[in-house]
């Protein structure tokens, strides 16, 4: 099944195929990679790709994956392609009224891209949050107007915090 993975605010189409034993293929865009993966314990995986061995700590919940490879953290938002299409269509047609912009993970507010009173478009960048050394841009879920901003640049926020209100 195809998935959309968002990394650093950019979307990538990916597809993972399980071959035989512990062998897999992953297609990212138009490139195909083959690798061997073994689940060792809890969230740890041993991966061999292009003859190199990697230990990966992969922890995911509700479509948000936290990946640790060689000391580097990556946050990846993953949804299946079918749900993305449904989500986009439903956003365009059903979001009415006020919408809170809420961060899913704790982090630091790096940049606020809009001001109170600004008109915003669907999927327009609103806020940049740094979480686990990765910058994530939060986007508007609808066309509307910024009526409330509850944070300041440089502020640390907890997951689940309402950062902004769009009407």
Automatic annotation (TrEMBL):
PROSITE patterns in alphabetical order: BIOTIN, BIOTINYL_LIPOYL
Keywords for this protein: Biotin
Annotated ranges, domain Lipoyl-binding: 92-167
Annotated coiled-coil segments of the chain: none
Protein name: Lipoyl-binding domain-containing protein
Native organism: Candidatus Schekmanbacteria bacterium RBG_16_38_10
Lineage: Bacteria, Candidatus Schekmaniibacteriota
């Amino acid at each position: 099944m195809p998935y959309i993975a968002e990394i650093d605010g950019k979307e990538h189409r990916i597809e993972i195929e399980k071959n035989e034993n512990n062998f897999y293929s992953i297609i990212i865009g138009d490139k195909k990679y083959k690798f061997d993966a073994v689940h060792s314990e809890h969230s740890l995986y041993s991966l061999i790709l292009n003859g190199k061995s990697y230990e990966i700590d992969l922890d995911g919940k509700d479509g948000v994956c936290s990946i640790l490879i060689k000391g580097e953290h990556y946050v990846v938002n993953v949804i299946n392609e079918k749900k993305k299409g449904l989500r986009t269509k439903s956003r365009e047609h059903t979001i009415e009224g006020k919408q809170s912009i809420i961060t899913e993970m704790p982090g630091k507010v790096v940049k606020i891209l809009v001001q109170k009173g600004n008109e915003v478009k669907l999927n327009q960048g609103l806020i940049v949050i740094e979480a686990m050394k990765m910058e994530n841009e939060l986007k508007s879920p609808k066309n509307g107007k910024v009526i409330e901003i509850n944070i300041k640049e440089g502020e640390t926020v907890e997951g689940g915090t309402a950062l902004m209100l769009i009407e």
